[in-house]
Specification:
The structure is a single chain. Helices cover 50% and strands 14% of the residues. The longest helix has 29 residues. The strands form 5 sheets. It has a 5-stranded parallel beta sheet with strand order 2-1-3-4-5, with helices on both faces. The chain has a 5-stranded parallel beta sheet with strand order 7-10-13-6-14. With 446 residues, it is α/β, with parallel strands linked by helices. The protein contains 19 helices and 16 strands. The protein starts with a strand and ends with a helix. The chain is flat. Helix 3 packs parallel to helix 4, helix 13 crosses helix 15 and helix 17 crosses helix 18.
Length: 446
């Protein structure tokens, strides 16, 4: 068994006995003689379970329990006392104590209680992780005009029930935009259900979306609710909507128009109240023209279009994105994030990013795994991006030409102003400090 246990008790013998007992079972044990010291221990290193004495010097155990539960709601606290009354036990339970054990302590009772508390903590952690996985992320990272424009659209369209068609290359973050729209809507507390039309076999997509009745097809041993029904009162996000079969398109159109649909193999109409968001990396207008996508469904879905730009068109956001992805992976795993040098960031900006933001997220995860807490330079970036060399060379050549042109303009302005930086700055429509910075960067001596 593994886990971290904090013992808060003013009796040294109790602390030593519990430490010996629990360490023998594989637990890591820290201890504190009073409540304030115990809270300080939790600030330094949060435990998996706290064993808390009821009677302590200073603030009593009930007071400390209230503070622990408020700050660390997922942390199980086991109360201990040899003088507890029924009222104490009831109050502790109401405040959120996991269990109450009496002194003198029985080793078997302590181990059984701690093992159960550890199991509860693990279950709470798994539940939190599952909720985080199921709930869509809503943070649109970046300060570029393109991302700010999408934020403005989300704040305007999100609170409505308008259907939105989100387009963009693969990996640009279309699902993130859908999650932000859901979070901004009156349905934010209801389910957000995603259907990846490209990942489901075409013969099963109708069953996946609309559900099926028992015996509807081979293997349908029981009735099953579809994603549309699961999303009732919430949001249904149709990712890769261009991959829907013709039959699924027809049923989806009916559901949008009437709020009704039938399960596969069923003959009873189901009613549903759901907002539909759709996304695709294909040209749906071309699909309509070629007859592969229904024009009436296209117009139903395309009430408000949102185009998500590729990463190469928003490279000004790259530094923020890198910081976000490194921090997110650190929060998930505890791994120490590497430090990105300016040369590394500059190299990343010169890459063409065919996989867009998803590729950048994967690269950041690779960096934190291979180079934890290390400094990342352009050399490490080159190793991970084999196509970078030519891109960097081309970009450097381009920047060198820009520098030559800028140097020429500044030298001409200085010559015309007989060396006066103030006059040259006015000619170039800039201020003197900015011109000085540019001169230093370009190696120009006044």
């Amino acid at each position: 068994m593994s886990g971290a246990i904090l013992v808060i008790d003013d009796e040294p013998n109790i602390r030593r006995m519990l430490a010996g007992l629990l360490q023998a079972e594989g637990y890591r044990v820290t201890s504190a003689p009073d409540g304030h010291a115990g809270l300080a221990e939790l600030e330094n290193d949060e435990a998996d379970v706290v064993l808390l004495d009821l009677v302590l010097p200073g603030d009593d155990g009930i007071t400390i329990l209230g503070r622990i539960v408020q700050r660390y709601p997922a942390l199980p606290v086991v109360m201990m006392s040899g003088r507890a009354t029924l009222g104490d036990a009831v109050q502790a339970t109401k405040l959120g104590a996991f269990h109450f054990i009496e002194k003198p302590l029985s080793p078997d009772a302590v181990l059984l209680t701690v093992n159960s508390a550890i199991a509860l903590r693990r279950a709470r952690d798994r539940t939190s992780a599952l909720v985080a996985e199921l709930n869509p992320s809503t943070r649109l990272v970046g300060s570029s005009a393109a991302i700010q424009g999408i934020r403005d659209l989300v704040s305007t369209v999100g609170p409505t029930d308008a259907r939105v068609l989100i387009t963009g290359e693969s990996g640009t973050g279309k699902e993130l935009v859908a999650g932000a729209l859901h979070a901004a809507s009156r349905r934010a507390d209801a389910p957000f259900i995603r259907v990846n039309s490209a990942a489901i076999p075409r013969e099963l997509i109708e069953s996946e979306m609309f559900g099926h009745e028992k015996g509807a097809f081979t293997g349908a041993h029981q009735s099953r609710r579809g994603k549309l029904e699961l999303a009732s009162s919430g949001t249904l996000f149709l990712d890769e909507v261009a991959d829907l079969s013709g039959e699924a398109q027809a049923k989806l159109l009916r559901a949008i128009e009437t709020g009704e649909y039938q399960r596969v193999g069923g003959n009873r109409m189901q009613r549903v109240d759901v907002r539909v968001l759709a996304a695709t990396n294909r040209d749906l207008r071309a699909a309509v023209q070629s007859g592969n996508f229904r024009d009436d469904l296209f117009y139903r879905l395309n009430v408000v279009p949102i185009q998500v730009p590729p990463l190469r068109d928003r490279l000004g956001d790259l530094t923020e994105l890198v910081s976000h992805f490194l921090q997110r992976y650190h929060d998930r795993t505890g791994a120490a994030a590497p430090v990105m040098t300016e040369s590394a960031l500059a190299a990343l900006r010169m890459y063409h990013w065919p996989g867009n933001v998803r590729e950048l997220a994967n690269l950041c995860e690779r960096l934190i795994i291979l180079h934890p807490a290390q400094q990342i330079s352009e050399r490490e970036i080159r190793r991970l991006l084999p196509d970078l060399r030519e891109d960097v060379a081309d970009a450097r050549a381009f920047h060198e030409r820009l520098d030559e042109y800028e140097r020429s303009l500044i030298l001409q302005a200085l010559e015309a102003s007989k060396g006066s930086v103030s006059d040259a700055a006015r000619q170039l429509n800039t201020d003197r400090p900015n011109l000085y910075r540019r001169m230093r960067r370009l190696g120009i001596d006044r």
